[in-house]
Amino acid sequence: MPDQPAKPTTHDSAPRMETIVSLCKRRGFIFQSSEIYGGAASTWDYGPLGVELKRNVKNAWWRSMVLDRDDIVGLDAAILMAPQVWVASGHVAAFTDPLVECKSCHARHRADHLKNNTCPNCGGKDLTEARNFNLMFKTNMGPMEDSSSVVYLRPETAQGIFVNFENVMTTTRRKLPFGIGQIGKAFRNEITPGNFTFRTREFEQMEMEFFCKPGTDEQWHKYWLEERFNWYLKLGMRKDKLRLRHHEKDELAHYAKGCADVEYLFPMGWSELEGIANRADFDLTQHAKHSGKKLEYFDEETKERVVPYVIEPSGGADRGTLAFLIDSYREEMAPTGEGKEETRIVLRIHPALAPVKVAILPLSKNEKLTPLAKDVLKAVRGSIDGLVQYDDAQSIGRRYRRQDEIGTPACVTVDFESLEDNAVTIRDRDTMTQMRVKILDLVSTLKEKLAIK
Ligand code: ATP
User: 19-90+143-324 has which CATH code?
Assistant: First the structure.
């Protein structure tokens, strides 16, 4: 058993957004879009580690909302839809934010985000009257650019679910209550995007519409509030950084009977991570009216037709990813192994979300060690779901730090003793403790370590 180093001392660091942005750029999580052209405002590209992290967030959502349940099925609807959808849903008429312009510096702002009606850009107080600005991106379908060819990039994934309600219900022979889950891109021409990936004009949503009998809706709303709050906790988010906030009556969207947000304490303050709304029968009724198709459920017991009520948990994959990054970021004092201490940056992220699951680190490049380490790599890659890296450059201490900074839960060191005892060392990211395991037991030990508990 190797000597156990002293444990790192951690403190509750609340990183600044700039720190996260710079880590993301330095380590290849998130880059500014079109950077070589000076960047496209408030649009971001996920790099090699970011794509893994965000995919893991989406997979964890899909697992808990679709794969692990009998009462929810999945869907992947198109981004472009019939334009009537957005008339029926109320988006053409009402999906607006109040836009004001500062008469001094001409900066544009969302009126409802201003403090004391003051321009945050120049401090000016002379602002134009607010006008309603529709957030939907418009484009044209086909070669004609006239009003008859106008289509919208969907501003939410939910409507793709509502228009498929009948298709899904009949093909899967569902009984109420049941849900339809979907993950996909949505677009909003936000007046003031910002705070890194928190508010962008192109983003991904993770939405589920849960159809239930009228009268059971409030109980299901409560259920989903709890489920969704607990999902973040289960994936390691700290409870004191999360809260549920119920909307005031005057804050409710036009379709909502009730709504509460899961909020996270971001560096700029408490902000929405996910909204969980009771949409009542608004959407199905509207689509039935505008399409002329009946969107109802026949209740075998009562022999009655009902329009189901809908509970909608709607989260952002990008916002969620950002929150998981911020929440797991720590700067802590860690022993160097030579009786000294140094600051280490570590992402204490849940193993299910970690972009790299395992790093295989041979102690040195060597004609005997390298083939054994490559064999270990092959065995681990073949059995662990997710990215497994191989790194044999620089000192082992440096390599551990590089993996800590990107949140790799386990580093496997192959050393000269391994050639004799057929065992390797697993070094734990959080405690920095080391454990010797037989190569034969390595995969099962790693699987246990990486599981969602
Ligand atoms: P906000 O009040 O912040 O504009 P919203 O209440 O309009 O948000 P919803 O329509 O409830 O947001 O969208 C559901 C989820 O989609 C949000 O909780 C958020 O995670 C995500 N989302 C919405 N708009 C954006 C955006 N512009 N950029 C990134 N994610 C977004």
Answer: 3.30.930.10
